[in-house]
C-alpha cells in the first residue's frame, strides 16, 4: 500500500507544472566561430551563435526571410529615398548594464564604414553618407544614392549595434543587447549562453543554451543518436537523415538556404575562356546524380545563380541540360582535346563528394580532372584570391548575390560589359516590375554565357529532438535564433 | 657524472634551438593567410591588410622569430589569432584533457600488459602463451581510430552506456569526466598494451636466460618464483623505457582519437590551428611538445647514467 | 632450416593482399573510376560480391586498388628510410664517438622528438595533401629508425676479430662497412624493414583517414573508412571491410617480421633452446 501511494505521489509530482518544461538546450554546430564579434569576421559560425541571441541590429530577418523591426521599432524613408530615420526601442541596455541609445548606433555604423574598419561586409555600409543623432532614441541616416534595400542591409549580422566601451573586446567577451549573454566559452569545445535578465523585449523560454562544436559528421551523428546534443540545425551527414526520420525521437527539418552551389570555372584561364568549352563542361554535368550521390537527394537543381524560392527565379536548367554527346561536339568545335583541368575542393561534403562525381562525369566526355582537396585557408589564398584554379565547387550562401557576376576581379573572373551594365541599371531601378524584369534578364545572361556550372540550391537539413519547437526551418541568413525556441511537454 | 650531465645539457640546448628553427621555417611556408581566412569570402582587401597589421604579421622574419623565441623563454607564447586569447591559456585548458587522457590510457595499458606479459613469460611455449601472443599481434595490427569507431557503435549508439564523445569538463565531477575519457582511453590503450605486453614477455624471457637466474633455479626456485623474485625487477628497465616513450606519444599522438570523440585536447588544438591558420598556436604547441620529449629523454639518460656508471663512459 | 609457422601464416596473409594489388593492374571486377549513382549502397550480390559504396562503386574492386596505394606508400617510405638511414648508421658506427657520430645521433633524437603525426599534418599543410607527401612524411620518420638499427648492429660487428684483421690489412672504413658490416646486418635490416612496412601501412591509413593521404579518385583504405563512417549504421560493411583489410595486411606483415627474426637472427635462434 505504501509503495502504491508513493508511486502515485511521484506521478503527481512528475505531472506538476514545476517540473514540466525543460528550459535548456544543446545545439550542435560543425564549425566553431573563431571569435564572437560579427562586425569583425565573416565566418558564418559567428552569426550562427550571436545573431539575434547576443547581438541585435536596427532591423532583423524573420524566420521566413522578411525584414522586421529590431532595435529600431520603426523607420521612415524620405520622399527622395535618401534619408532613413530610425526610431529606437526605449529601455534597451547592453549586457554590461549601460544603456543603448542613438549614440551607439552612430558609433557602430561609423566604425563599420571607417577607413580602417575590419568589417568583412564593408559594402553594406558603402552607401551611407552620414549618420546623425537627432535625440537619444532617433537616428537619421543619409545615403549618397537611393537604396530600396537599405533596411535589408541593416538586418545583416555584420550591421549589429555595439557599444564603444566594449567594441574592441567583443571578439572574446561579446557585449550586446540580445536576450542571451555569453556565460562561458571552452575554446574548441563549446559556448554557453545564459538568459540576460534585463532584456528589453519578451524574455525567451530558454534559460540556458549550449553550442557544441562537432566537425566530424560521424561524431555528429553519434552525438545526436546518443542524445548528447538536442538539435543539429545544419546537419553535416545527409546520408543519415533517413535513419533519423524513422526514429520517433527525432524530427528532420528540411528547408532552403541562400546557397547556390556552383561548379565555378576560371573564365580567364585557357581553354575555359572559350564559352564552348564552358558549355561542354556544363552539359557534361548530371545534376540529379550529384544531388543524389553527394547530398542523398537533398537539393534543388538550378540553371543559373539564383535561389529557386525567390519569386523572380526562372528555371533555366534546360540551357545546360545533361547531354554528353553535345559536350563532345562542343569540345571538338572548340578544337580542344586531351584536356586536363585542376579542381580545387574546399572541405564541405557537397564540394568533396560533388567533386568526385563531377570528375567522373567529365571523364565521360574525355576531360581529365586533377582533384586537390584544400582547407578553407588554402582555398581562399590559392583559388579565391590567387585565382590559381580551373574548377572549384562552392556554395554561395549570401542572399541575393547575383551581383558578384558584375565584379570582373571576382575569383571566377567573368568580365562582361553587358552584364555589368544590366546590374548598374538594376541598382538605379526601384520600380518592382522593372527590377523583376532586370533580375530575370541577368539570370538568363549568365546562364547563356555558361559562366559557371550551376548545380543545385543547398538544402538546410537539420535534425532535432522531436520535442523542440521553434527552430528556423529555412536560412534567410546564417543564424540559430533561439528567442522562439521552446520544449514541448 | 657532472661532466656527463653538462655535455648532455649543451646538446639539449642545441636540440631545442634546432627544433625551434625547423618549426618556424615550416610554419613560415605554410600557404594561407590567417587574416584572409578570418575575414572570409567577400572581405575587402583593406580590411585584410588592417587585420594583418593588428596581428603583427607584417614584421621581418628574423624579428618575428626572435620575438617568438624570446617570448617562449619568458613564458609568453603569444596570442591566438583566431580566439584572441593567450596561447598559454588555451594550452592549459587542453592539458586538462590531454594529460588525464594520456595517463588514463597509459594506466589501462600497463594494467593490461603486466599480468598478461607475466603469464605469457611464465607459461612460455604453452597454449596460454600462444593465445596471448596471437591476441597481442592482433592488437598491434588494429588501427586505433577504427577500433574507436567500433567502440562508439557498440557502447555509445547501441548500448548507450557511454556518450559518443565530448568532454563535460572537470567541474561536472571526476566521475563524469573520467567516463567521457573511458572510450578514448580504451581505444588508445589497446595497441599500446599489446606492444607493452610483448616487450614485457621478451624482457622477462631474456632475464630468465641469464646465469644468475639459472643459479637461482638450480638452488631450487620454481620458474614462477624466479620470475617474481629476480627477473621482474630486471626486466622492468626496458618496460619503463617503453612506457616513457608511449607517454610522450600519447600526449600528442591522440589527434585522430581526439577527433573521433571530439575531445578538446592538445592534438586537436594543433589540428584546428593548422586548418584555421592559427599559426602562433601551432608553432608554440609543437615546440612545447618537442621540449617535453627532449626533456624526458634527457632525464632518462641522466637516470640511466646514475644507475649504471658504465654508461657514462661508453657511447 | 625449419620455417617458423608465423612466417608462413604471415607470408600467406600479406601475400594475399599483395597479389590482389598486383592483380588489380590487370583486372578488377568493376572499374573504380566510373560511378553509378543508381547502384549506390547495394548489399553484396552476385554482381557486386562485397556490395557497393555511396557512389555505386564496387567495394571489392576498391579494396584491391586501395591495397595498391597502401603498399606503394609504405614500401617507398621504407625505401627512403633505408636509403638515408643505413648509410648514416654505417658512418656513425665507423666513426664511433666522433663529432660525426654525435651529430647523426643527436639528429636522430631530434626527429624522434617531433610528434610524427603532427609533422605529417604540417608537411601536408605546406605541400598540400597527396600520396607523395604522405610517403615523405612517413619516410622521414623511417630514417632515424634505420640509422639506429644499423649503427647498433654495426657497432657489435666492428668489435669482432676479423674486422680487426681487415683493418690491419689496410682496408679503409668505407670498404669494411660495405664488404663486411653491411652483409652481416642485412638480417637485422630485413626484419626492421618488415616492421616499418607494417607501421607504414598503418600510418598511411591514418593519414588518408584524416584526408591527408592519396587524393580522390585514387582509392585508399583509410579514406574508404572515413567515407564510410556516417554509413556505419546503414551499411556497416562499408566501414568494417576496409578496417579488416588493414588489420589483415598489418597482421600478416607483423607475423612475417617475427618469423623472419626467429629464422634469421642466430642469437635469438639459440635462445629458443
Give your account of this protein's structure.
By secondary structure, chain A is α+β, with helices and mostly antiparallel strands. Chain A folds into two domains: 264 residues, 3-Layer(aba) Sandwich (D-Maltodextrin-Binding Protein, domain 2), CATH 3.40.190; 201 residues, Roll (Dipeptide-binding Protein, domain 3). Chain A contains 14 helices and 19 strands. In chain A, strands 11, 12, 13, 14, 15, 16 and 17 form a seven-stranded mixed beta sheet that branches. In chain A, a hairpin with a 2-residue loop joins strand 6 and strand 7. In chain A, helix 8 runs antiparallel to helix 10. Chain B is mostly helical and 315 residues long. Chain B contains 14 helices and no strands. Chain B is flat. The two termini of chain B are 14 Å apart. With 273 residues, chain C is mainly α. Chain C is built from ten helices and no strands. In chain C, helix 1 packs across helix 2. The C terminus of chain C is likely disordered. Classes of the chains: A alpha+beta (489), B mainly alpha (315), C mainly alpha (273). Chains A and B meet through helix 6 and helix 12 of A and helix 2, helix 3, helix 5, helix 7 and helix 12 of B. Chain A: InterPro entries: Peptide/Ni-bd (IPR030678), SBP_5 (IPR039424), SBP_5_dom (IPR000914). Chain A: Belongs to the bacterial solute-binding protein 5 family.
Amino acid at each position: 500500500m505504501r509503495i502504491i501511494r508513493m508511486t502515485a505521489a511521484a506521478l503527481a509530482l512528475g505531472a506538476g507544472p514545476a517540473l514540466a518544461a525543460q528550459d535548456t538546450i544543446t545545439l550542435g554546430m560543425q564549425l566553431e566561430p573563431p571569435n564572437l564579434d560579427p562586425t569583425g569576421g565573416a565566418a558564418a559560425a559567428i552569426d550562427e551563435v550571436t545573431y539575434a541571441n547576443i547581438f541585435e541590429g536596427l532591423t532583423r530577418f524573420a524566420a521566413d526571410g522578411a525584414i522586421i523591426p529590431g532595435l529600431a521599432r520603426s523607420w521612415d524613408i524620405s520622399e527622395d529615398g535618401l534619408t532613413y530615420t530610425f526610431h529606437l526601442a526605449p529601455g534597451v541596455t547592453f549586457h554590461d548594464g549601460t544603456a543603448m541609445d542613438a549614440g551607439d548606433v552612430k558609433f557602430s555604423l561609423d566604425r563599420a564604414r571607417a577607413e580602417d574598419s575590419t568589417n568583412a561586409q564593408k559594402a553594406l555600409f558603402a552607401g551611407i553618407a552620414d549618420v546623425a543623432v537627432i535625440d537619444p532614441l532617433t537616428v537619421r541616416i543619409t545615403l549618397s544614392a537611393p537604396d530600396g534595400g537599405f533596411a535589408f542591409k541593416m538586418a545583416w549580422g555584420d550591421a549589429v549595434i555595439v557599444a564603444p566601451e566594449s567594441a574592441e573586446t567583443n571578439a572574446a567577451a561579446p557585449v550586446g543587447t540580445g536576450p542571451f549573454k555569453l556565460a562561458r566559452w571552452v575554446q574548441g569545445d563549446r559556448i554557453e549562453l545564459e538568459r540576460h535578465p534585463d532584456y528589453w523585449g519578451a524574455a525567451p523560454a530558454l534559460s540556458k543554451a549550449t553550442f557544441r562544436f562537432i566537425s566530424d559528421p560521424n561524431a555528429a551523428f553519434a552525438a545526436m543518436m546518443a542524445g548528447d546534443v538536442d538539435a543539429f540545425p545544419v546537419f553535416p551527414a545527409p546520408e543519415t537523415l533517413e535513419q533519423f526520420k524513422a526514429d520517433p525521437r527525432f524530427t528532420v527539418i528540411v528547408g532552403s538556404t541562400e546557397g547556390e552551389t556552383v561548379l565555378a570555372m576560371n573564365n580567364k584561364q585557357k581553354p575555359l575562356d572559350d564559352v564552348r568549352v564552358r558549355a561542354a563542361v556544363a552539359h557534361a554535368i548530371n545534376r540529379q546524380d550529384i544531388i543524389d550521390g553527394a547530398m542523398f537527394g537533398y537539393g534543388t537543381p538550378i540553371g543559373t545563380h539564383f535561389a529557386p524560392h525567390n519569386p523572380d527565379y526562372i528555371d533555366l536548367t534546360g540551357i545546360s541540360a545533361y547531354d554528353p554527346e553535345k559536350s563532345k561536339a562542343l569540345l571538338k568545335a572548340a578544337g580542344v582535346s586531351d584536356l586536363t583541368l585542376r579542381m580545387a575542393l574546399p572541405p564541405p561534403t557537397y564540394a568533396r563528394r560533388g567533386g568526385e562525381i563531377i570528375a567522373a562525369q567529365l571523364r565521360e566526355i574525355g576531360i581529365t580532372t586533377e582533384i586537390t582537396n584544400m582547407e578553407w585557408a588554402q582555398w581562399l589564398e590559392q583559388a579565391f584570391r590567387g585565382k590559381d584554379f580551373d574548377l572549384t565547387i562552392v556554395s554561395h550562401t549570401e542572399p541575393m548575390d547575383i551581383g558578384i557576376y558584375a565584379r570582373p576581379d571576382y575569383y571566377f573572373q567573368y568580365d562582361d560589359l553587358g552584364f555589368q551594365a544590366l546590374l548598374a541599371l538594376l541598382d538605379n531601378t526601384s520600380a518592382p516590375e522593372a527590377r523583376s524584369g532586370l533580375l530575370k534578364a541577368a539570370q538568363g545572361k549568365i546562364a547563356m554565357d555558361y559562366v559557371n556550372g550551376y548545380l543545385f540550391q543547398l538544402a538546410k537539413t537539420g535534425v532535432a529532438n522531436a520535442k523542440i519547437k521553434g527552430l528556423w526551418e529555412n536560412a534567410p541568413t546564417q543564424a540559430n535564433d533561439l528567442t522562439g525556441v521552446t520544449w514541448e511537454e | 657524472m657532472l661532466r656527463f650531465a653538462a655535455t648532455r645539457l649543451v646538446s639539449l640546448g642545441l636540440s631545442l634551438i634546432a627544433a625551434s628553427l625547423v618549426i618556424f621555417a615550416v610554419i613560415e611556408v605554410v600557404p594561407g593567410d590567417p587574416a584572409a581566412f578570418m575575414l572570409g569570402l567577400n572581405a575587402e582587401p583593406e580590411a585584410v591588410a588592417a587585420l594583418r597589421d593588428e596581428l603583427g604579421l607584417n614584421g621581418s622574419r628574423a624579428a618575428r622569430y626572435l620575438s617568438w623565441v624570446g617570448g617562449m623563454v619568458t613564458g609568453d607564447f603569444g596570442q591566438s589569432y583566431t580566439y584572441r586569447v593567450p596561447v598559454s591559456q588555451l594550452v592549459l585548458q587542453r592539458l586538462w584533457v590531454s594529460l588525464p587522457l594520456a595517463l588514463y590510457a597509459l594506466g589501462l595499458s600497463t594494467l593490461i600488459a603486466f599480468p598478461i606479459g607475466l603469464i605469457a613469460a611464465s607459461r612460455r611455449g604453452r597454449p596460454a602463451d600462444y593465445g596471448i601472443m596471437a591476441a597481442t599481434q592482433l592488437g598491434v595490427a588494429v588501427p586505433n581510430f577504427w577500433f574507436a569507431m567500433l567502440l562508439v557503435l557498440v557502447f555509445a549508439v547501441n548500448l548507450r552506456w557511454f556518450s559518443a564523445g565530448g568532454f563535460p569538463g572537470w567541474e561536472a565531477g571526476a566521475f563524469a569526466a573520467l567516463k567521457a575519457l573511458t572510450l578514448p582511453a580504451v581505444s588508445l590503450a589497446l595497441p599500446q598494451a599489446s606492444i607493452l605486453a610483448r616487450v614485457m614477455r621478451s624482457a622477462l624471457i631474456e632475464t630468465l636466460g641469464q646465469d644468475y637466474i639459472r643459479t637461482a633455479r638450480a638452488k631450487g626456485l620454481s620458474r614462477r618464483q624466479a620470475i617474481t623474485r629476480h627477473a621482474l625487477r630486471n626486466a622492468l628497465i626496458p618496460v619503463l623505457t617503453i612506457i616513457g616513450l608511449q607517454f610522450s606519444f600519447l600526449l600528442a599522438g591522440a589527434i585522430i582519437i581526439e577527433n573521433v570523440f571530439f575531445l578538446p585536447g592538445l592534438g586537436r588544438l594543433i589540428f584546428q590551428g593548422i586548418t584555421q591558420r592559427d599559426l602562433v598556436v601551432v608553432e608554440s604547441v609543437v615546440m612545447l611538445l618537442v621540449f617535453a620529449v627532449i626533456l624526458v629523454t634527457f632525464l632518462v639518460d641522466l637516470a640511466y647514467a646514475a644507475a649504471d656508471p658504465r654508461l657514462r663512459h661508453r657511447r | 632450416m625449419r620455417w617458423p609457422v608465423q612466417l608462413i601464416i604471415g607470408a600467406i596473409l600479406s601475400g594475399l593482399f599483395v597479389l590482389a594489388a598486383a592483380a588489380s593492374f590487370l583486372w578488377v571486377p568493376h572499374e573504380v573510376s566510373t560511378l553509378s549513382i543508381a547502384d549506390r549502397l547495394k548489399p553484396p550480390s552476385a554482381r557486386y560480391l562485397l556490395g557497393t559504396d555511396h557512389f555505386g562503386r564496387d567495394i571489392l574492386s576498391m579494396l584491391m586498388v586501395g591495397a595498391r596505394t597502401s603498399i606503394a606508400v609504405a614500401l617507398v617510405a621504407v625505401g627512403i628510410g633505408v636509403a638515408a638511414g643505413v648509410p648514416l648508421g654505417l658512418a656513425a658506427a665507423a666513426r664511433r664517438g666522433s663529432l660525426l657520430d654525435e651529430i647523426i645521433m643527436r639528429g636522430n633524437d631530434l626527429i624522434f622528438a617531433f610528434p610524427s603525426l603532427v609533422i605529417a599534418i604540417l608537411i601536408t599543410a605546406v605541400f598540400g595533401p597527396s600520396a607523395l607527401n604522405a610517403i615523405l612524411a612517413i619516410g622521414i620518420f623511417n630514417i632515424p629508425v634505420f640509422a639506429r638499427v644499423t649503427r647498433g648492429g654495426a657497432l657489435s660487428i666492428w668489435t669482432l676479430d676479423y674486422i680487426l684483421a681487415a683493418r690491419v690489412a689496410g682496408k679503409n672504413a668505407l670498404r669494411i662497412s660495405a664488404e663486411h658490416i653491411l652483409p652481416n646486418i642485412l638480417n637485422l635490416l630485413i626484419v626492421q624493414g618488415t616492421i616499418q612496412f607494417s607501421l607504414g601501412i598503418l600510418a598511411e591509413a591514418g593519414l588518408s583517414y584524416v584526408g591527408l593521404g592519396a587524393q580522390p579518385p585514387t582509392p585508399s583504405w583509410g579514406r574508404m573508412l572515413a567515407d564510410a563512417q556516417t554509413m556505419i549504421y546503414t551499411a556497416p560493411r562499408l566501414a568494417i571491410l576496409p578496417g579488416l583489410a588493414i588489420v589483415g595486411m598489418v597482421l600478416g606483415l607483423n607475423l612475417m617480421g617475427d618469423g623472419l627474426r626467429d629464422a634469421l637472427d642466430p642469437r635469438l635462434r639459440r635462445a629458443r633452446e
